[in-house]
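Hi C.,

You asked whether I'd gotten around to modeling the 155-residue construct. I have! Everything is below, sequence then structure, no commentary in between.
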Amino acid sequence: MKKTIAIVLSATLLSSFAVLAQPAKTAKQAAGATEARQAIFKLVKSNVGILGAMNKGAVPFNAEILQTNSKRLEQLSLMVEDYFAIDTTKFDVKTEALDDIWKNKADYKEKIKALTVASIKLNKVAAAGDESKYKAAIGGIFKTCKGCHDSYKAD
């Protein structure tokens, strides 16, 4: 029952992005929103770094790390949309986020969802301990990152 309630609440919160997204009212609010977004992506980066090293063979396969980091990435992906609820385009904030995020909310939301799905898949592969599948699952994470970066991140 608790899981069902959590799923319903999560779906409600996620579906409310278009309704809740609103322009920052002050430069201070825009700067704070930008800082929070950047903190989330620093955490994402800190969790994908070891995955890339594992995929390249620079570090050995470690199912425990894959499970831990994939779970973290899943949780972070569920937070990303919330941290873009404040549109900062009207203010001069230091960001690599392109204004298209707020113009193409549905597409951006789908790209975030793709990261969630890829994270869940990686976690399942890690839980199964099948080393023959982990590279493809890690590649799925990086594919979702690239898809979002190509559309919504400045070079």
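If it helps when you're writing up: Confidence is low (pLDDT under 50) at residues 4-19.

Thanks,
B.
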